[in-house]
Design goal:
By secondary structure, the protein is α/β, with parallel strands linked by helices. It has one domain: TIM Barrel. It has 13 helices and 9 strands. Strands 1-2-3-4-5-6-7-9 form an 8-stranded parallel β-barrel, surrounded by 8 helices. Helix 3 (about 85-95) links the parallel strand 3 and strand 4 (about 100-105). Helix 3 (about 85-95) packs parallel to helix 6 and helix 7 runs parallel beside helix 8. The longest helix has 19 residues, at about 225-245. The two termini are about 15 Å apart.
């Protein structure tokens, strides 16, 4: 099984956005050495606690400080941009880092309605146009517009020898159907979906040639030396989500101490129990067993892991323990 990484560049409470971005770069360097397959960077806008609104900028640095790990967006939120703009940027990355660049595409806003308007004007209209925008990105990447098209003579320069590999990301059957229609690789966000993921993914694989090798499932996981330590580390993430639901938590991921001292209501305790159902937490053998069970359930070859902790060192340690457990290197 291949293991990959989705990095949301979380800011820990008491740290700065610069600290978070530097931690992402250091994590990419480490996981390149550990044998992880991909390192993808998420896109969020004006969301307190997340430091990366522009994946391509961070990927440019990560690519220069890594050797073999594939790098990519998870995802470029395409309705915010023109397809040509995105094709240019990811072609530039693919020119710098040949055969290593992925272009994950998504339709979510990545921020508030006001942010979407600031980025793209009529965002809802762009969402309706999303399938057409996806087509245009791919046509620009492959310089494949019909000869009579207005863009036929337009190149998204620099043009790399190997174009970025486009993927469609989603958390629903609607996204999977679009990936089938466009014959594109598909990433399912298990960690943020309440839908029947295995059924959605299997339907995709049934309809796409070599579907199994064209699917990634994204999972939330925290691994530590002991179960007790992992569960303690995870408390920060649970509290952060509770605070975000209340419109708080803009300072970033709270500390374990803050999570322990927080006066949880009965409703919040029940919310945490539900969150635990969608996250894998434990010692290396426990996390491996649960990841392998999930792999078997989805019947895929690759899992992409997102790990959010208050301590950047704990996050690095989590990925390191998993690499050792799965013998990635």
């Amino acid at each position: 099984m291949k293991l990959s990484i989705l990095d949301q560049s979380p800011i820990s409470k008491g740290k700065t956005p610069k600290d978070a971005l530097e931690a992402s770069i250091e994590l990419a360097k480490l996981t390149d050495e550990l044998g992880y397959h991909r390192y993808w960077v998420a896109e969020h806008h004006d969301l307190g606690g997340l430091a990366s609104p522009a994946p391509d900028i961070l990927l440019g640095i990560i690519g220069s400080q890594t050797e073999q790990i594939r790098i990519g967006s998870g995802a470029v939120l395409l309705p915010n941009y023109s397809p040509y703009h995105i094709a240019e940027r990811y072609n530039e990355l693919a020119t710098l880092y040949p055969n290593r660049v992925d272009l994950g595409l998504g339709r979510a806003p990545g921020g508030s309605a006001e942010v979407s308007i600031a980025l793209a004007g009529n965002f809802l209209e762009k969402v309706r146009m999303y399938p057409k925008l996806v087509d245009e990105v791919i046509l620009f990447l492959h310089q494949d517009f019909p000869s009579d098209h207005m863009y036929a003579k337009v190149s998204a320069t620099p043009v790399p020898k190997t174009p970025p590999v486009p993927w469609l990301l989603g958390t629903s059957n609607k996204s999977a159907k679009l990936a089938i229609e466009k014959r594109l690789p598909f990433v399912f966000g298990h960690f943020m979906s309440n839908e029947d993921g295995p059924s959605i993914v299997k339907e995709y694989m049934k309809n796409v040639l070599n579907g199994k090798s064209n699917v990634i499932v994204t999972v939330s996981a925290i691994c530590a030396e002991t179960t007790e330590e992992a569960e303690e580390i995870a408390m920060s993430n649970y509290l952060w989500k509770i605070l975000q639901d209340k419109g708080e938590g803009k300072e970033g991921v709270p500390s374990i101490e803050e999570a322990k001292a927080y006066p949880y209501s009965l409703e919040e305790k029940e919310r945490i129990e539900r969150m635990k159902q969608n996250q894998i937490v434990g010692n290396p053998s426990q996390v491996r067993e649960q990841l392998e069970n999930l792999q078997s359930e989805y019947e895929v070859d690759e899992l992409m892991i997102v790990t959010i902790t208050h301590s950047y060192e704990a996050r690095k340690k989590s990925y390191q323990l998993l690499a050792e457990e799965f013998c990635l290197a």
